[in-house]
């Protein structure tokens, strides 16, 4: 029993000593006595245990090597203990305050929902919405006119909207003048047959000349070659002259009645080919500079829900409507089934391909009304304001023309809270419009601007 006590007491004392030394080591007191700073102690602990990495948006994601978050895809950051976080945040805050920047700890980033994304050069497309009206294709319109004075003896088409074809007559005209011209042609043909065997060449040529002259007069009256050939075979004149249309289409206007007398040049019908139509779209003057001939346009009509028609920009009018402040563009497109009717209102979407440029989410840009600012993460947890010049916007993305470069980590969410933190700390954002290419000094920037105005601050 005495032997057991001799062994048990020293073991107990040794165990208590080990526990006490471990407590001193973890609390940093032992390392302070050894001449180590707290930061050096933390670095030593990190080297001993190995660094861990976590996601700022999902802190429960912890890995032993760098990479991307499996949930949101953000780049993992080094996980720090509370003591390490306090040391790093204090040092970052001191350095950032000297430069007018903002330093956030990992906890603050999570609470403020701050997420970053690398700026990249991309080609984005923009959709311009416009309203339009369906119009006739003016190159597919025609008038049926009277080539000779006379009386409309018969109308083959007597209703508006009727379909007509080029090879079918639309009316028949009785004209005494046309009847006389046909008789002259028959006499000329008969004379040619009598004079062609004449031994005198000039007389034979005169017979041919009379026929040619009479033929030309009939053709000027609108008589076709086939009708003249039929007249020559029949040997007697036609009392009525059939009138044909110059193109196939539908009758859009009927201007005569059967039995009506008409003069030379009087219009009988208006014809339109609706197999192709024009869409006259109106584009606001702030966006018409993006319109180009040949761009694809999608057309939607309330008459056909869910149906899309496709066409191309064929012409841009060289003038602006002073009342609506819009520029008209002509879209040419096929019209299968004649679904699109003239004067129908439609909605148009013009697809515009923009030039390659640095692109960031719209939420990253803060617009004060006078300038646009984004926050850049220059190092882990430290954010710097940059004044930028923005370009075209497409949905939730916007072009950055100057102020940042590809690869800069931009705060795409939480930027407003970062700026609020800057205002609370009394920070004076410098003019960073030339950052990266030789920025201004702090005094010059301070004279130029007193910071972002929180009254007119708005998110893009």
Structure write-up:
This protein has 460 residues and is of the alpha+beta class. It folds into 4 domains: 1-36; 101-122 and 356-459, Beta Barrel (conserved putative lor/sdh protein from methanococcus maripaludis s2 fold); 127-137 and 273-353, Beta Barrel (Elongation Factor Tu (Ef-tu), domain 3); 147-265, no CATH class. It is built from 10 helices and 27 strands. The chain has helices at 2-27, 29-33, 38-49, 82-99, 106-112, 176-195, 201-220, 225-234, 415-424, 442-448; strands spanning 52-54, 62-63, 77-79, 102-103, 115-118, 120-122, 125-136, 141-145, 150-155, 163-164, 169-174, 240-244, 249-254, 261-262, 267-272, 276-284, 296-300, 308-321, 326-334, 345-353, 357-361, 366-367, 372-379, 382-394, 397-402, 409-413, 458-459. Strands 4, 6, 21, 22, 23, 24, 25 and 27 form an 8-stranded antiparallel β-sheet that branches. A 6-stranded antiparallel β-barrel has the order 7-16-19-18-17-20. Helix 6 (176-195) packs antiparallel against helix 7 (201-220). The longest helix is centred in the first third of the chain and has 26 residues, at 2-27.
């Amino acid at each position: 029993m005495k032997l057991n006590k001799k062994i048990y007491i020293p073991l107990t004392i040794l165990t208590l000593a080990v526990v006490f030394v471990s407590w001193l080591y973890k609390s940093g007191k032992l390392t302070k006595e050894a001449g180590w700073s707290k930061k050096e102690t933390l670095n030593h602990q990190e080297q001993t245990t190995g660094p861990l990495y976590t996601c700022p948006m999902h802190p429960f994601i912890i890995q032993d090597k760098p990479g991307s978050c499996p949930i949101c895809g953000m780049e993992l950051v080094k996980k720090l203990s509370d003591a390490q976080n306090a040391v790093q945040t204090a040092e970052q805050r001191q350095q950032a305050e000297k430069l007018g920047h903002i330093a956030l700890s990992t906890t603050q980033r999570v609470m403020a929902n701050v997420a970053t994304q690398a700026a990249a050069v991309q080609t984005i497309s923009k959709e311009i919405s416009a309203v339009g009206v369906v119009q006739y294709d003016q190159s597919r319109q025609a008038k049926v006119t009277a080539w000779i004075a006379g009386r409309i003896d018969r109308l083959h088409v007597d209703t508006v909207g009727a379909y007509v074809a080029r090879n079918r007559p639309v009316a028949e005209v009785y004209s005494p003048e046309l009847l006389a011209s046909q008789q002259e042609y028959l006499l000329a043909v008969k004379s040619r047959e009598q004079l062609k065997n004449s031994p005198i060449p000039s007389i034979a040529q005169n017979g041919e000349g009379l026929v040619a002259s009479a033929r030309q007069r009939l053709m000027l009256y609108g008589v076709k070659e086939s009708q003249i050939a039929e007249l020559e075979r029949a040997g007697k004149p036609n009392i009525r002259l059939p009138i044909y249309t110059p193109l196939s289409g539908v009758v859009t206007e009927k201007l005569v009645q059967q039995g009506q007398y008409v003069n030379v040049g009087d219009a009988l019908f208006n014809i339109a080919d609706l197999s192709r139509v024009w869409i006259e779209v109106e584009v606001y003057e702030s966006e018409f500079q993006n319109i180009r001939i040949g761009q694809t346009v999608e057309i939607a009509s309330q008459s056909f829900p869910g149906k899309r028609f496709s066409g191309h920009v064929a012409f841009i009018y060289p003038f602006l409507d002073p009342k609506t402040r819009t520029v008209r563009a002509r879209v040419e497109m096929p019209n299968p089934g004649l679904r699109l009717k003239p004067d129908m209102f439609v909605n148009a979407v013009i697809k515009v391909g923009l030039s390659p440029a640095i692109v960031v989410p719209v939420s990253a840009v803060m617009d004060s009304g006078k300038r646009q600012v984004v926050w850049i993460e220059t190092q882990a947890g430290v954010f710097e304001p940059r004044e930028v010049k923005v370009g075209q916007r497409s949905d939730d993305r916007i072009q950055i023309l100057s102020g940042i470069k590809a690869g800069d980590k931009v705060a795409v969410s939480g930027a407003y809270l970062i700026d609020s933190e800057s205002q609370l700390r009394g920070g004076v954002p410098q003019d960073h419009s030339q950052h990266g290419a030789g920025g201004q000094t702090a005094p010059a920037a301070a004279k130029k601007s007193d910071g972002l105005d929180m009254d007119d601050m708005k998110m893009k």
